[in-house]
Batch of 2 targets.
Target 1
Amino acid sequence: MTLLDLARGPGLYWSVIIMITGLVWRLSTVLLMPYRRNLSAPGARAKGSLRGALTTIVTRTSPYRSFRSRTMPALMLSYTFHFGLLIILLGGAPHILLMKTATGLGWPPLPKGIISLASGLTLAALILVAIRRLRHPVLRLLSNLDDYFSLGLTILPVLSGLLLAEETYVSYELLLAIHILSVEALLIWLPFGKLAHVVLVVAGRAAQGAKFGHKGAIT
Amino acid sequence: MPSSETLGEELERRGISRRTLLKFATAMATSLALPPSMSAAIAQGLAKTRRQSVIWLSFQECTGCLESLTRSESPDLETLIFYFISLDYQETLMAAAGTTAEDALFQAAADNKGDYLLVIDGSVPVADDGVYAMTGGRSDFDLLQKLSRDAKAILAIGTCAAYGGLPKAAPNPTGAVGIADVIGDKPIANIPGCPPIPEVLTGVLVNFLSFGRLPDLDEHGRPLAYFGTTIHDQCYRRPFYDQGKFAKSFDDDGARQGWCLFELGCKGPVTHNACASLKWGGGTSYPIQSGHGCLGCSEPDFWDKGGFYTSLSGGDAPPWRTAAGAGAAGLAIGAAAAWNARRVRSSVDRQVAQEWQEKKEGDA
């Protein structure tokens, strides 16, 4: 079995299973955890926990105006690579092919040029994010192995995918195998580290929003 | 031909001019990706050499390889047989049969001990002492071991002989293997393909006759001159791949306009062979030119590499039911973790309540 066979066969099969099991485990644990009832009286302008939760899930996507000037560069970088990853994942022809093979669902791809541009921007943004994390004194203190590992695992598929699409001196077969394996490593790690925010971000915002909604605070 | 006569002398005796030999040598140099200056060396080498004894054994095979090789165009196999090699044993082509043929085989092996070229098409079954392929009461595995001992070199023709091919496909009931899997002490060149390109065999034979050795090989034992690049890299449809223009089905507009067949499962990007440059039927066409994706037949284990129509981007993702099972397992683990957390919290609550009660009673 070649590296590519491993990547396209058992690698893909088991990484998807581990990812699904892990993500459902993380999310269901959070949802089913015991929580203490909030016995305090609702605030004067309380909108209710549910409304607060639902509002916060959306509003936290953008920071408060007063914070924006300080956080704008990091925010832009973050938005760039998050949207970039989404465009690459959902717009790239080979990715749609894979999803069509796996699920039967397919849609028209974006032109290769757009995917290449998105990949380049995503890669640049991810590298800048990594540099910022390494250089920012506070961020550096807050960062642990999980942060760097997760960042590395996100960069690798983008980099290998870009090299693959542009066909370099490295053989197509090896690059394809590395690309698929790097994605599979990302899928396997997804539920366990900070990358689990792909599902937990909703739960986290909802929990915070419910508290604020009860108090009547601005969310 | 007297055994002491060189090929050059024989060709001269038959009225074949040096010019004809040089033309042939030039064609071979081109085919072997050698510089034009090497054609003189090839001609010289061929002229000096003696007729090469070739023993051709057929094991687990479909005769497709031989069918293909007898259709080689330039140079054709007939030219090689008539002028350069002595095909001492080939059970399909030879007139003799039965014990006469068997005798011819062992006589040729004895006469050319240590000097004959052993050509094999078909895989060799090794399970259960090789009983799944027998010729004249002798297993192919035995015959291979016996005849490879005194061979100068071995050519494994076709994917079956090279890597096991179709007979080796899972579950491989006969324990089929490629020749190089069981013979380790002889120079072996693999010429895979289902079938292999005829000109590759003739090219390798000429290389062997001219330079006295097998050509340079890649990591899978294939001649680099023919298997050094992928079909994708030489494909005339490659510009469409680069432009992102893909046929979505075998009869859509893209297919009619000759767009890239990647999405229809073409394995050209990972298949090393010379189909796109040498082509078939005397340079007429090759599978992709005929509108079908490459199956990857010259790669090891190509039968077991998933569907022919699954694109390289696709793979063996778990089906919906398995994915749902994985989700259910995740939910069960999550529920168990949450239940455990609730149990711990209840126990802490009880303890706190008890301590509070005891404190209250103590105060009272």
Target 2
Amino acid sequence: MSQEATTFPRQHYLREGWDLRSWLLTTDHKRIGFLYLVSITVMFALGSFYAALVRWNLLVPDGSLLSAEAYNKAFTAHGVIMVFFFLIPSIPATLGNFLIPLMIGARDLAFPKINLLSWYIYVIGAALTLYALLAGGLDTGWTFYTPYSTVFAQSNVELAAVGIFIAGFSSILTGLNFIVTIHKMRAPGLTWFRMPLFVWAHYATSIIQVLGTPVVAITILLVALERIFHFGFFDPNRGGDPILFQHLFWFYSHPAVYIMILPSMGVVSEIITCFSRKRIFGYGFIAMSSLAIAAIGFLVWAHHMFVTGMAVYSAMVFSALTYLVAVPSAIKTFNWTATLYRGSVKWDTPMIYVFCFIGLFLIGGLTGLFLGNLGTDIHLTDTYFVVAHFHYIMVGGAIMGYLGGLHFWWPKITGRKYIEAWGKVSSLLIFVGFNLTFFPQFVLGYLGMPRRYYVYPDEFQVLNVLSTAGATILGLGYLFPFSYLTHSIFRGEPAGENPWGAKGLEWATQSPPLTHNFETVPVVTEEAYDYASAPKEAVRV
Amino acid sequence: MSETAAGAGSGHAALQHHFVDLEQQKEASALGMWVFIAQEVLFFGGLFAAYAVYRHQYPDAFAAGSHHLSWKIGFFNTLVLIGSSFTMAMAVYSAATGRAKRVVTLLLATILLGGVFLGVKYFEYGEKIRPCFGDGSHAGCLVPGERFDASALHLEGDPGGPAQIFFSLYFGMTGLHALHMIVGIPIIAVIAGMAWRGRFSPEYYTPVEIVGLYWHFVDIIWIFLFPLLYLVGAH
């Protein structure tokens, strides 16, 4: 990079004003991405706090920290906050919001005001739900299973349900905005098969957000209506069927897992090709496998319900379809690995997170097959094996991808570099902490420890102590990026427009970008990831 | 996508800064509304799925509940709503051909017909809800819950549980539909106001077009609700 890269640009989107008004009334996708980043970080901290309560309570077998009731409320709060208010919006609402217009050479998303509206809806939904969780609490688990949630639960079900219902529309509007933007706002020359894989991944994610979220919205609304107006949908006393709730709930909530993981896969595709200094292997396959995951993901929901007494033939079909999802996931993993082959691999922080992602996603994905299998699932249902499995996907997969992406694009977002050594140390801490937390849970689950109990038999204590120790390390690990990334905003060196020597339109504009992203609308003349013509070594300024 | 800076309508007052030209802006808005409608289909889809499950499970209770709804009133409302779709379609056509005064008239007619529909709905709801209040017997109360009066439905040996599910679906589905109309009417009013002030021209009438899409969608939902709720077991 030349001289100009080391000086900080005088005009950029953050300079549009620092007063509250310039932030709360902005329609700039980059600033809205920042608003989301702050909000979901707050929610992540809260969700982590409840996770800490759960883990510390399980340090001893007799559950001496929390009462049974408080424990139920703690794990419910952890699940509700992390799923609906952190993981679902995590990458799409922050990095996706910030990067998609930049990556496709647009000045903004198609509907900037709706983008801002989605953030406000998110905040209102989060505020209502948090109020419900703090004032009285919620003890149904994040899954709201009926008839417990509709008939028996004495906690704040209605209010929490309404909060989640509202927040769902923030996710729908984000997805809608992305779909229209990707269809209609691409720069001249940017054909579909020249699009970055990050954009493909978000396109697939958006489809799930738009088609899945409304179903859980109406389902949660029905739970609230059943409590308030005594509708009988899920009430067995009146011929209603509680299992219908599970079908409707998982119709969204299984694809929701792909809302969490697909954007991370997009991040991995971007980072791995950059730090291998090599064109990504199997571009078309990676792009199409995102769509395949979105499509097949809609057809597997009942694998959460194998023990409900559903018909054996439909269980077999759902089991087979579940195995089918492994195919596009494996296609991605193999293509990433093939990208590394004979590449000039560099171990910068984003790349370390990518390696974490691939390894942990592999374990999380393969243990998912244990649970999609009718025989083993009966043994493992509602044990800690399930908890370990989905945390390997959601924390080991989704959050590792999120952190990798955050580090990769941080110089673009803030125009500053973070301290690389701190990045490496904390990624290691997070990796060790994560595995120490969740690997013992596979063993615990296999041995038969059920989830959602606040006490357990003495013989499980050693593994639980290991898990709690790991969670403590993991928590500390998360504090580091928070500190050094915040520090870098004020003290970091100027990053220059392209510190990693990466390909893609977002790196062709200054860091931080101008409010309108590009001085002139870029014209795309080459395929994505043309690293063959780029220097072999990533350029460090 | 047009590469030329001077595409059709660039420099038009209604062109937002982040679009290249009006054509792109219009396509984006229309696609946005279509995606929103897809979302709505799934939103109602949860209720339609519940309807399918319970109608399959309790055909008799559904027929008895349906007989208790007046198909004549339902049919009248169907005609009203189809009429409002017609005036809406004509409003879009008039906007495309640049007749602003007619756009205003037709949008007001759409609002009026929507109001008639909601008025009839209010009357229908009142008939079922009113008996539930007050002391003494709640004969004729059709709101699900403790006061639900199953005797009016003449179901043999049935305490009325499944019939309550039918009426839960009735209130849930028609209520959600009515809510969509209540949201739509003020939006149409705002757009009628814009038409009155001469904001639209044959080059730019996107708001009329997309509110039209929305209104037609709300009508189509009713086209499904009418037979599913009012005509079960009709011969």
